[in-house]
Specification:
By secondary structure, this protein is of the alpha+beta class. About 60% of the residues lie in helices and about 15% in strands.
Length: about 200
């Protein structure tokens, strides 16, 4: 085998290995970065929401306080574009942006009772903040990120639907393959020029 052919083969193998590695890791890296950024934003939003919930605490009639909690959860949900839930120290949901008023008044609403046992809520109860990623939320059937923060009135949980980044990672993989093809073409042309 001539030197030119060996150089071309070595360049092709090097490019193929780099392309395979890049294509295999690009999706994982982008997904991890997106997950970290989303959870960091949710933690900050939950902490601010917990402070706001604490600031609204004022001596008032229980019915008025419950209405105020529901209104605040709804307002924060609109402002943040998130699902917001207030859970008091006893584990009872006091406000939820996706619950109906009758569900909040009914202490037997099972889907609301489960919030106190969610991993991010339990972590916030222990450590001030907590976060979780759920691949398939029971409420929506979709991927969900959530964070919670403990405040003086209880725990505030803020959740956001997971973003499907497959189109982005597919596009990045195609870009890596295209760059590999261009690199292989340039290496081949370089080897041909050197052979003359």
């Amino acid at each position: 085998m001539r030197l030119t052919a060996r150089l071309l083969l070595a360049a092709a193998v090097a490019v193929a290995v780099l392309v395979a590695f890049g294509a295999a890791t690009v999706g994982t890296r982008v997904q991890a970065a997106e997950r970290t950024a989303t959870v960091d934003r949710l933690r900050a939003e939950a902490a601010v929401s917990a402070r706001l919930w604490a600031a609204t605490a004022a001596p008032r009639k229980p019915a008025a306080a419950a209405d105020a909690d529901v209104q605040l959860a709804d307002s924060l949900a609109i402002l943040l574009g998130r699902h917001v839930t207030f859970i008091d120290a006893s584990g009872r949901v006091r406000g939820d942006s996706e619950a109906r008023d009758d569900e909040l008044r009914d202490s037997g609403a099972t889907w609301l009772a489960g919030y106190a046992r969610l991993p991010e809520v339990l972590a916030a109860t222990r450590d001030t903040t907590g976060a979780a990623h759920v691949d398939a939320s029971s409420a929506t059937g979709a991927s969900e990120y959530a964070a919670a923060a403990r405040g003086t009135r209880g725990v505030v949980r803020v959740a956001a639907a997971g973003v499907d980044i497959r189109p982005l990672t597919d596009s990045l993989r195609r870009g890596v393959f295209l760059a590999g093809l261009v690199g292989l073409t340039v290496a081949g042309l370089g080897a041909l020029l050197l052979a003359r």
